[in-house]
Write a structure and sequence with these properties.
This protein is an all-alpha fold. Helix content is 75%, strand content 0%. α1 runs antiparallel to α2 and α4 (75-93) packs parallel to α7. It starts with 6 loop residues before the first helix and ends in a 10-residue tail after the last helix.
């Protein structure tokens, strides 16, 4: 089954998927990820496999094995998603997120909010090495603050994601940074230093945009901040002791504990805080079906796995403090599984290889090589729907080309990070796009135009290459 599909054949499932997704978004809008997109992915998968079987590019056993391997690779991501859902519910009901919003509204000035949110997420992500953890904790609180200040949720989410992915991209603790460096054969800190030539200018431009828009939007429809703070204080017991939960979480992250462990323990801490500080809310969530300890236990469990709805007296604030728990992640997990199956089909039938071979024929010089690498990183995020797979495949496909043309491996690793790592969150059916959309409660389409750092990064890396600035070549022996 080593037959390579023709280019036009390889493009059929991809073109069908793009057309179906466009129709789904046009018809379903914000509800496109609740089922219709999954069906589109499965239809495109069916077409891909049918072509593969009919043209003998693949056997059914090969397809099943490819799916099994790909699903096994995302098993940890699925567990993380469930824990993030549990964490979101526990941190909200325990009062941790409302407390951060309460004090954040007092500290953060509206004019500087967007740029501050971006910088805060950048620092936290740099220290933790995880954009996912940053967005699931401080990002959720910043979304609440931004909405209370009257900013569009798309702008706030864009600032949060831009900062989080900047920190993740240059952190030596980041798994994607380590993966990009190792896949290309670049020493980690050489890779990080070389990325500064493209990453710092991109992030500077991003901060300037958010700073400017903060002043433009300042005063445009800001909510009554004091009424929001009063509503939070009346609904939750905002004890300063609640700061211990995020503080201990940061300590666990600083000790470089595994993400699964940190998320699980942070959830347990929040559950304990809810029992101690939010008795009345747990009773409200549990209902009258039981009393006493059983009622609190039921309230905690529902907060972790199910939906909660609290009445603060302000409708818009009610939407903010409502949670979905683990069950709210099921549509995302369903979508991830469908996207993974499509990626497995495209990989197993070698349709991706056929498309990549055609792209490599376009490479003529440094600019076209870097541009092709950046495009492939983005393209694989669209097709494979997985950030890690995109990084590995991009590096493996171009490694020999960079070496044969006399370029140091750090150029490949930097270009891979400038494209595959940061653009994953811009694809609605990619694992990163689906996760951040679910965590922040903002659709990918809504925040995409404002993730300036994420879509300026691949542009910057091509511009720097066209200028010939710091393009490193292998030393001839």
């Amino acid at each position: 089954m080593d037959k390579l599909p023709k280019l036009w054949v390889a493009c059929v499932p991809l073109a069908l998927l793009v057309a179906l997704i466009a129709c789904v978004v046009a018809v379903f809008g914000d509800e496109s990820l609740t089922g219709a997109s999954q069906v589109a992915l499965l239809v495109a998968t069916a077409v891909c496999v049918t072509i593969g079987l009919f043209c003998k590019y693949i056997s059914w056993d090969d397809f099943e094995k490819a799916v099994a391997d790909k699903v096994a690779n995302i098993s940890s991501a699925i567990i993380i998603l469930l824990l993030i859902g549990a964490l979101g519910g526990a941190w909200m009901v325990s009062g941790v997120v409302p407390m951060l919003i309460y004090y954040g509204l007092e500290i953060l000035h509206p004019s500087w909010f967007l740029v501050s949110a971006c910088l805060i997420c950048a620092v936290v992500s740099l220290m933790t090495g995880s954009s996912w953890t940053t967005i699931a904790t401080i990002g959720v609180a910043l979304i609440g603050i931004g909405q209370a200040l009257g900013f569009s949720e798309g702008w706030v989410a864009g600032a949060i994601i831009s900062g989080a992915y900047f920190g993740d991209k240059i952190s030596p603790l980041s798994d994607t940074t380590v993966l990009a460096a190792s896949s290309a054969g670049t020493p980690l800190f050489t890779h990080i230093r070389y990325m500064m030539y493209t990453t710092v200018p991109t992030f500077t431009i991003t901060l300037l945009i958010f700073a400017a828009m903060g002043f433009v939007q300042n005063g445009a429809g800001h909510s009554d901040i004091e009424s929001v703070r009063n509503a939070l204080a009346n609904t939750f017991n905002l004890s300063p002791w609640l700061f211990l939960v995020p503080l201990l979480t940061v300590c666990m992250i600083a000790r470089r504990m595994p993400s699964l462990v940190v998320l699980f323990l942070a959830c347990l801490l929040a559950c304990f805080a809810a029992v101690v500080a939010q008795d009345n809310l747990l009773e409200q969530i549990a209902g009258d079906e039981c009393q006493g300890v059983a009622q609190r236990f039921r309230g905690v469990m529902v907060s972790v796995y199910g939906s909660t709805s609290l009445d603060t007296g302000i409708p818009s604030l009610n939407d903010l403090v409502a949670t979905r728990g683990m069950s709210g992640m099921m549509s995302t997990i369903w979508l991830i599984l469908c996207a993974t199956i499509f990626g497995a089909a495209m990989t197993a039938t070698r349709m991706i290889d056929s498309i990549m071979k055609a792209i490599l024929l376009l490479v003529r010089n440094t600019v076209s090589l870097v541009a092709s690498t950046a495009f492939v990183g983005f393209f694989l995020n669209v097709v494979c729907a997985d950030q890690y797979l995109s990084i590995v495949l991009t590096s493996s496909m171009f490694q020999s080309t960079y070496q044969n043309r006399g370029y140091e491996a750090c150029l490949l690793s930097r270009t891979t990070e400038d494209s595959a790592t940061v653009t994953s969150v811009l694809i609605p059916w990619n694992t990163c796009g689906m996760t951040q959309s679910s965590v922040l409660g903002v659709s990918t389409i809504a925040y995409l135009p404002y993730c300036f750092f994420n879509y300026l990064s691949p542009i910057t890396t091509v511009v720097i290459a066209s200028l010939g600035y710091k393009i490193r070549r292998l030393v001839q022996k």
